């Protein structure tokens, strides 16, 4: 039984019989392409340089998942900084929402790594190798024999994917660790070798096979735009009032400016026809603008048949830059980012946590009158200097702190844990617990006070003591 055929193309990346339509867009040079190229190469240089740049002795960006420490531009955030990380993430999201409300999917077309790598790294390589392959699109669509140039292209893709994958991993384990994995024997670090192999394969498959499918299927951003855009948002638009009715030929009488050359379609990296209006697949890459401007120059028509415009402008109205979302988004950004900056500047020089015993019983009886609790103090030094931290009991004359060495040196950005014991008389416990206060100081002005609940035996006369009180 033959496969059903749709009465027309349902999606720009699908043929009518449901098979994948491989998109090989024609590059269109122009003023917008030049601007995007400058932005893309600047972002690529930044991405490749960040793992090698250190600020205050720390990597510029390091997402240390095993230690749950996240460093951004020399500032390290710990697991206890959940509020700060949440405020930073919300600020970034609101900034993208604001950019979308003003300029449409400018992030997708200009800043998204998927677009930057695809259009300015992998597609130029593809055009270089396949410029002489006849019917290159049919080779993919029909699964035919691959031309030797395509094999060469995939080999280069694999090398670049490996380099990008290793750079990506450097954001999580530092470049020194990645270098150790690369030049060391795989058997010496099997986990690191497995991770680099998996990430390399993922990057290769992304840009060699999935391509625009990541934007159209996996990424939810295109589906959000209906809620993020309004009639005043500046988007890549086709001016139907000027372009219609379309028509070919030199005689333009009674025809619009559009000559139906399909240059805007053949250059689109997601395969859409911008003349059909705003579509989920449009990433606002502006390639159709440059392609159409070139055609307009050729036929002697003014540029701008396809341009950045709003639906209000296209309908003859005027664009309102001041509107609810362009007011609320900046206010929300200032609120969240301002709170982030304030909290960041006001946080303590060290993050101190009191922990109980890592294993075993919560307490031990030293004798009939003394209870011992194993306690740990974990200190994360947020400053740029090494400090010695000491711990002492506050207002607990009947209790004793016993430590092998009461004091530990913690390097900048590092976390250390000091174990010790606290002895307290059995009579001081009520219903098996007793609260104590600890003071942790670094000798340079930092002091913090923490409370901790000791554990002890439940005595028969606890209720009597409670009644006396």
Quick synopsis:
The chain has 469 residues and is an alpha+beta fold. Helix content is 42%, strand content 18%. The protein has 16 helices and 16 strands.
Overview of this protein structure:
This protein has helices at residues 31-49, 82-103, 106-111, 113-130, 136-142, 148-173, 175-183, 190-210, 212-218, 221-228, 240-243, 263-266, 287-299, 311-314, 324-346, 462-468, and strands at 54-55, 58-59, 61-64, 69-72, 75-77, 235-238, 306-309, 350-355, 364-365, 370-381, 387-394, 400-402, 408-410, 415-425, 433-441, 447-455. Among the domains are: 31-77 and 112-210, no CATH class; 350-468, Immunoglobulins (Immunoglobulin-like, Sandwich). It has 469 residues and is of the alpha+beta class. The strands form 5 sheets. Strands 8, 9, 10, 12 and 14 form a 5-stranded antiparallel beta sheet that branches. A 4-stranded antiparallel beta sheet has the order 13-11-15-16, with no helix packed on it. The protein is elongated. It starts with 30 loop residues before the first helix and ends with a helix. The longest helix has 26 residues, at 148-173. The chain is built from 16 helices and 16 strands.
